[in-house]
Amino acid sequence: MPAPKPHKARRLVIVGLFCLLVYGGVIGANRYFTGMALAAMASMSAPTASVSVAEVRSQTWPEQIDAVGTLEARQGAQLTAQTSGIITDVLFESGQTAKQGQLLVQLNDNQAKAQLAEDQAALENARYQMARQKKLLASKNTSQEAEQAAEATMREAQASVQADQAQLENLQIRAPFDGHLGLRTVSPGQYVTAGTGVVDLQQWNPLRLVFDIPQRQLPRIAIGDAVSLSVNGYPDKRFQGKISAIGAALADSTRSARVEALIDNPGDLLRPGMFGQVQVRLANTLQVLAIPRTAITYNTYGEYVYLVEKGKDGDVVQQRLVEVGAQRGDLVQITDGVKVGEQVVTSGQVKLYPGAHVKIVADPALSADAATESE
């Protein structure tokens, strides 16, 4: 193979040197600008996060037992027809209140009224015959047996009238107690049989609160102890009551006792069937370290808080694992991990990390600093 010409070899060398210079210049410029950027970043101060804080305080809490309870009507019944017949009148609307003895539903009583009139006439005649036999017996114009037979006939007539009156009452459905009516399920003209449901009647004030207490807590409660209830429908309201009864035996499966309390229901806000958190207040008190519930952050390793500490360049935060105890409203007990007087972050944790610089504000969501940080 013939050797390349000298001028072609020089051209290849020149092109190679040019490419090498360009490549080296690009690499050098990249390193130069990268170094400048890193130096600029190193000279910048760490961003400061706006947070709100609360001080760890020692508080005296009344000791209590927590449970989950269900509300039941103190008196409640599904009103039903006692006998078969056609409804002639419905004297209530769904959702109304009813007084004890109020007539709610009337069944056809024409035949019963006719039978009552017939038996009342028979009773009048039996009474007349009874009086006549007594006069005859006094004048010795009849026998003792005839007078006794007349008395028996009169008693049978009285029993027939009483049975007719009872039948008329069975054709009426009345409220057995004061309460609130549910949804009516019948209409005039409808034929019902004995046992047909007509309407639900519930008494709402007071309500029965039923909950379970484990056997280890049983000696600590007594009838008359104060109870409070919170339900998610009214998160800012607590309903008060007292223990009215304690079960006589423990459940085999859970080894817990059933407890009943009567809960006041002002304004009829609560309904049977609701459930909620129950607190039984005890006579003893506890000295606890408490912080706002919003200061607790949860992860797979447990609960932790951010504590504010003084650093060289201002306030910084550090993570610390804590053990959480009882809860009272918006406060939670910390059994280990914090000390009295320490400051914990209550809002703004999402942008924090150990060693982060912070600025304490009343409400980061509304502060001007927080608004500046978000821009």
Name its key features:
single chain, 375 residues, alpha+beta, conserved putative lor/sdh protein from methanococcus maripaludis s2 fold, OB fold (Dihydrolipoamide Acetyltransferase, E2P), 4 domains, six-stranded antiparallel beta barrel, four-stranded antiparallel beta sheet, 27% helix, disordered C terminus
Please explain how this structure is put together.
- The chain has 375 residues and is an alpha+beta fold.
- The protein folds into 4 domains: 48-60 and 288-374, Beta Barrel (conserved putative lor/sdh protein from methanococcus maripaludis s2 fold); 65-74 and 204-284, Elongation Factor Tu (Ef-tu), domain 3, CATH 2.40.30; 76-103 and 177-202, OB fold (Dihydrolipoamide Acetyltransferase, E2P) (Beta Barrel); 109-170, Helix Hairpins (Orthogonal Bundle), CATH 1.10.287.
- The protein contains 4 helices and 21 strands.
- It has helices at residues 6-43, 110-138, 144-170, 368-374; strands at residues 48-55, 57-73, 76-80, 85-90, 97-98, 103-107, 172-174, 179-181, 191-192, 197-202, 207-214, 226-230, 239-250, 256-263, 275-292, 297-299, 302-311, 314-328, 331-336, 343-347, 357-360.
- The strands form 4 sheets. It has a 6-stranded antiparallel barrel. The protein has a 4-stranded antiparallel beta sheet with strand order 3-10-8-5, with no helix packed on it.
- The longest helix is centred in the first third of the chain and has 38 residues, at 6-43.
- The chain starts with 5 loop residues before the first helix and ends with a helix.
- 19% of the residues are buried.
- The model is unreliable at 364-375 (pLDDT under 50).
